[in-house]
What we know:
The structure is a single chain. By secondary structure, the chain is of the alpha/beta class. It is about 35% helix and about 20% strand. The chain is globular.
Amino acid sequence: MKDNEIRTCFISPHSDDIVMSSFQIIRKKILSKHQTLLTIFGVSEYVDISKREIYKTKDDVTMTRLKEDKRFAKEVGINFDYFKIPDCLLRHRRVFFNETQLNIDKKLFDDLVRRLTKYIIKSKLNQVVVHYPSGNKRHFDHRLIVKVAQKIPNIELLYVDDIPYSRISSDAGLELYKSIKLCADDLKSKHNAMDLYSSQMCSLFHNQVDKITRLNNMTERIFKNEKGDDCHPNV
Length: 235
């Protein structure tokens, strides 16, 4: 690897998140030729409500989501890895948390900073992409990963829209870094890639992808810190 070569890690809180925000960014290698997808919360019991009769146990769901991630990674030609960490439904039985409750996961937060830093160094990665959770009800696992990524030293930290939940607003303290225009075929192939996550996708997610893509002028967007990597926005 050349010293100045960019090696990008897309950090996905859960196995279906990154496809909705960054499918064409990954497929068309907008950031770099060397890409890794890392799913953090690789142990889960969540599936779309209409499919709960199919996947009845935590092990069923976890193995299914792992297979879906691997299929997606093969489809777009990205390296794939994951951590065996339970998602918030298994840790606390809730999806959304208030800001003050971050301390509930202080031990997990510190452990993730150590593990991710070690992983980034070992894998020789120097650019990290995370979702920027800007909705009123921010998904706790998504917010936790952003805060962890902000603690990793010696990386370029970039943000993408937290689709299907929200989009990055103009007052987030971020500036547009790159974007990719999506044609009708690009959007269609994105929906097809979402369907690789058949245990989790629903019509609402597909509709939200269409809605937010239109609000973003038919683009997938990448942002960076407005004031540089030493001054992170609060999430």
